[in-house]
Specification:
disordered C terminus; Rossmann fold; 11 helices; 397 residues; single chain
C-alpha cells in the first residue's frame, strides 16, 4: 500500500496541487502579457493611421509641406470643444449651436491661414479632412491611454474590456482614414447621397444661398411647388439646414417637409436599400433637427423621410456602387410622395448630409456620379495591391 501511495496517488496529487497554485498566481500575468502584446500592436497601428491622416491633409495643403506647416497641423489636431452645461435644459440647443459655430469659425480661420491661395471649395474640403484627422487622433489617444493604464495597473479586467472593443475601434479608425482622404480630395462619400438626390432633382434651375453654406432651388415637380435644399457644394459642407428651413417658413406657406439622408443599417441588411418613414432624418448632435421639429410641431406639418441604408463606416468612406445605384430610385420615390401630397402650399425637400464632391445642379450631380465610379475603381485596385498573398496555411480564408 505504501508503494501505491508513493507511486501514483500522493505524488500525482501533490504535483497537480502545485501546478494549480502556480496557474492561479501566474496565469493572469501570462494572460496580461499576451493581451499587452496585442494591445500595443493595435495602439501603434492606430497611431500610424493618425500619422497617415495628418500626412494626407498636409500634402493637400502643400506638396512639399514645411516643418512649420507640419507643426501647425499637428498642434491643431489637438483641438477640442467643450459641451455647454446642461443641468438646466432650457436653451441648450442655442448653447450647442453657439459652440458649433465657434468651432467652425476656428476651423475656417486655421485653413485660411495655412492655405490662403486655395479657393473656398478646396478650403472646405481641407476643413472636413482636418475634422476626420482630429477624430482619428482622439481615438488613438484614448486607446493609448487605456493601454498604458493596463501596463501600469496590471488589471486583467481593463485589458479584457479594451480587447473586446478593439475590432470595432480598428474598423471605425480605418474608415476614418479613408474618409479623411475622401474629404480632402473632394470625393463623394456615402453620406453625400442626400446631396446627390437633391442636386439631380434640381436640374438646371437657379440656386440661391439662403443661409450660410446652404442653398435652395425652386422648381415645379408633379404640379407642386417645391423648394429643394442642400448644403452648398461641391466643397465638403453640412450646411445650416435647420436655420434655413426656419427662414423659409417666415416667407412661405410650407405644407410638408421631406428629408433625404443616409441611415445606419444593421448587420445583415443590404447596403443601398431605401426605407421610408416619418420624422426628421438629420444626424449629429440635433441642432438642425430641433429647428425643424419645433417648426413642424407648431404648424402641424407632415414630416416624411427617405433614407438609404449603409453602415457607419460606409457613410464616411468613399461612396460605394450600391449606394450610387439607389439615387434614381430614391428620386422616383420622393417625386411620388410629392405628387400624393394633398396639403396646399410649398413642399420643402431637404438633402441631408455632407455634400463633398457634389455641386448644386443636375450637371454637377452627374459629375459626382462619374467621380464615384472612378474612385470605386481606384479603391478596387488599392485593395488588390494591399491584399496579402494566400498560401496553404490560410485554408481558403
Amino acid at each position: 500500500m505504501m508503494f501505491n501511495l508513493l507511486d501514483g496517488g500522493i505524488i500525482g496529487n501533490i504535483i497537480w496541487v502545485v501546478m494549480f497554485m502556480v496557474m492561479i498566481f501566474f496565469y493572469p500575468r501570462l494572460m496580461i502579457m499576451q493581451m499587452m502584446y496585442k494591445l500595443e500592436q493595435s495602439a501603434s497601428m492606430l497611431e500610424g493611421l493618425t500619422n497617415k491622416a495628418r500626412h494626407v491633409v498636409t500634402k493637400k495643403i502643400s506638396k512639399k509641406p514645411s516643418h512649420d506647416l507640419n507643426e501647425k497641423v499637428s498642434n491643431f489636431m489637438e483641438f477640442f470643444s467643450i459641451d455647454p452645461v446642461n443641468l438646466d435644459p432650457v436653451g441648450i440647443v442655442k448653447k450647442l449651436e453657439h459652440i458649433q459655430i465657434l468651432s467652425e469659425n476656428r476651423f475656417e480661420y486655421f485653413v485660411r491661414k495655412t492655405s490662403p491661395k486655395m479657393d473656398a471649395e478646396a478650403q472646405a474640403n481641407i476643413m472636413m479632412g482636418l475634422a476626420g484627422a482630429i477624430s482619428l487622433n482622439q481615438i488613438s489617444k484614448v486607446v493609448r491611454h487605456f493601454v498604458e493604464m493596463v501596463r501600469k495597473t496590471k488589471s486583467l479586467q481593463i485589458a479584457m474590456l479594451l480587447q473586446m472593443q478593439l475590432p470595432l475601434i480598428e474598423q471605425i479608425s480605418k474608415a476614418l482614414l479613408k474618409g479623411t482622404e475622401a474629404f480632402t480630395n473632394g470625393w463623394p462619400v456615402g453620406d453625400s447621397v442626400g446631396g446627390i438626390v437633391v442636386a439631380k432633382m434640381a436640374g438646371n434651375s437657379k440656386t440661391k444661398e439662403i443661409e450660410k453654406d446652404t442653398v435652395v432651388t425652386r422648381k415645379k415637380i408633379r404640379g407642386k411647388n417645391v423648394i429643394l435644399m442642400k448644403a452648398k457644394g461641391p466643397g465638403s459642407r453640412l450646411g445650416r439646414l435647420g436655420r434655413a428651413v426656419e427662414k423659409l417658413s417666415k416667407r412661405e406657406k410650407i405644407s410638408k417637409i421631406i428629408t433625404v439622408d443616409a441611415a445606419a443599417k444593421l448587420e445583415g441588411e443590404k447596403t443601398g436599400r431605401i426605407a421610408e418613414g416619418i420624422g426628421v432624418a438629420i444626424g449629429g448632435i440635433g441642432i438642425d433637427r430641433s429647428y425643424i421639429e419645433n417648426l413642424a410641431t407648431t404648424r402641424n406639418l407632415p414630416l416624411d423621410t427617405f433614407v438609404v441604408k449603409m453602415s457607419q463606416e460606409e457613410a464616411i468612406m468613399p461612396m460605394v456602387g450600391d449606394v450610387l445605384k439607389s439615387v434614381d430610385k430614391m428620386i422616383t420615390m420622393v417625386e411620388n410622395n410629392i405628387a400624393e401630397t394633398k396639403e396646399k402650399g410649398t413642399i420643402v425637400v431637404v438633402g441631408v448630409g455632407n455634400t463633398v464632391g457634389v455641386g448644386n445642379d443636375r450637371k454637377s450631380s452627374e459629375s459626382a456620379e462619374k467621380k464615384v465610379k472612378e474612385v470605386i475603381e481606384i479603391m478596387k485596385k488599392r485593395e488588390q495591391s494591399e491584399k496579402p498573398k494566400r498560401n496553404w496555411f490560410s485554408f481558403g480564408f
